[in-house]
Write a structure and sequence with these properties.
This protein is mainly alpha-helical. It has a domain at about 1-180. It is built from 21 helices and no strands. It has helices at about 1-20, 25-35, 40-50, 70-90, 100-110, 120-125, 135-145, 155-165, 170-180, 185-195, 200-205, 210-225, 225-240, 250-255, 260-265, 265-280, 290-305, 310-325, 330-345, 350-360, 365-375. α17 (about 290-305) packs across α21. The longest helix is centred in the N-terminal third of the chain and has 20 residues, at about 1-20. GO terms for molecular function: phosphatase binding. Keywords: Receptor. This is Short transient receptor potential channel 4-associated protein.
Length: about 400
């Protein structure tokens, strides 16, 4: 009982730190935790306390079922992973999770690629980083690769690693993790690893090097689009950037050879994803987990608008409705979702900044595109209302009541 109480006390401490790191005084808390060398301390405890393996000779705090997610030991580890996620997410202090040698490796990756080091890396106080042969992120990667697919921890481990990549995309960060064999990972993490990184797509193409493997991968994406939509967004955004870099021989080569990029380059593929992204959510069923589907559908349409193809996509949605014998259903639903989007994102600076950083599309263009789509002028070819026949109009119905 003493061991159980001790572990639960540590769970509560980690929980409080997570809450503070997500609060309004986040930067102040970050500075204090960094100055107190929290991350090097956790790194030193990782093998001995956080991720030690219990055996029959020492106490197993699992109760009757050692795989129970509610056991104190598992709660402790999950809360630890959530703390790492909160610490790394969109914050320059994330490099404290590495040691000096690993920081040098990031610098070498940037130098070899002839790109400048990110400012956060340059500004990292090396007296506050991890000690020893491995930093905390590398230790986490090691245990993550050992965890079985059905492990209670693997999801949270992937979330913690993903948070290290979130924010402004860093080629060096991506290559640092790719070199450690992370292509077999969760969809969100895979998306962050590959976004705008032509070398990552080249590596991935070798991984799905047969039609059977590629088909199996696409089946996984299509069977759980709520989970995989961030990866779809990454592919769409990356393809758009690569198509503007046709002077780069390597980019042209990968564009022609990569089955994933070739698949997404087909307009029917993007339309297929757009249909389903809009169809699987509505205002009543929106959650923090599936609202990203709405943003992914917007990314597809924003890129289409840049190329003056927005009317083509909206008309395709209309034709899909009639083909499915549900005229007005998709477009009315999308109209209501975009009204929700305006209410949510136009009042939240942090959320809007995350959208801008993750997509490299100015938030002003997000707002402008949504405004154009919601336009009331039925003669506008870029307004949703223009594609809904009068008998099926449902735009006055307010589905956004508090």
């Amino acid at each position: 009982m003493k061991i159980v109480h001790e572990i639960m006390y540590k769970v509560e401490v980690l929980y409080v730190l997570c809450v503070l790191l997500m609060g309004r005084q986040r930067n102040q808390v970050h500075k204090m935790l960094a100055d107190f060398r929290l991350i090097p301390g956790l790194n030193n405890l990782f093998d001995k306390l956080i991720w030690r393996k219990y055996t029959a000779t020492n106490h197993v705090v699992h109760g009757q079922n050692e795989n129970c997610d509610c056991s104190p030991e598992i709660s402790f580890k999950i809360q630890f992973l959530r703390l790492l996620q909160s610490f790394s997410d969109h914050h320059e202090n994330k490099y404290l999770l590495l040691n000096s040698q690993e920081l040098n490796e990031l610098s070498a990756i940037s130098m070899k690629a002839n790109i400048p080091e990110v400012e956060a890396l340059v500004n990292t106080d090396r007296s506050l980083v991890c000690d020893g042969k491995k930093g905390l992120l590398t230790r986490l990667l090691t245990v993550m690769k050992r965890e079985p697919p059905d492990s209670s921890f693997r999801f949270w481990q992937a979330r913690a690693v993903e948070s290290f990549l979130r924010g402004a995309t860093s080629y060096a960060d991506q290559m640092f993790l790719l070199k450690r064999g992370l292509l077999e990972s969760y969809f969100d993490l895979l998306g962050e690893l590959m976004k705008f990184n032509i070398d990552a797509f080249k590596r991935f193409n070798k991984y799905v090097n047969t039609p059977e493997k590629f088909e199996a991968f696409m089946t996984q994406i299509n069977s759980s689009l709520v989970d995989s939509n961030m990866l779809v967004r990454c592919i769409v955004l990356s393809l758009d950037r690569f198509e503007s870099q046709t002077e780069d021989v390597k980019v042209v080569e990968v564009l022609s050879e990569c089955c994933l990029l070739s698949y997404m380059a087909r307009v029917e593929s993007r339309l297929s994803f757009l249909f389903r992204l809009i169809n699987i959510i509505n205002v009543q069923t929106l959650t923090q987990e599936n609202v990203s589907c709405l943003n992914t559908s917007l990314v597809i349409l924003m890129l289409a608008r840049r190329k003056a193809k927005l009317p083509f996509y909206l008309n395709a949605l209309r034709e899909k409705e009639y083909a499915e014998k549900y005229p007005g259903f998709l477009l009315n639903n999308f109209h209501n979702l975009l009204r929700f989007w305006q209410r949510h994102y136009l009042n939240k600076d942090k959320d809007s900044t995350c959208l801008e950083n993750s997509s490299c599309i100015p938030f002003s263009y997000w707002k402008e595109t949504v405004s154009v789509l919601l336009g009331s002028d039925r003669t506008s070819l870029c307004a949703i209302a223009s594609y809904i026949d009068e008998p099926f109009m449902d735009l006055d119905r307010d589905l956004l009541e508090d």
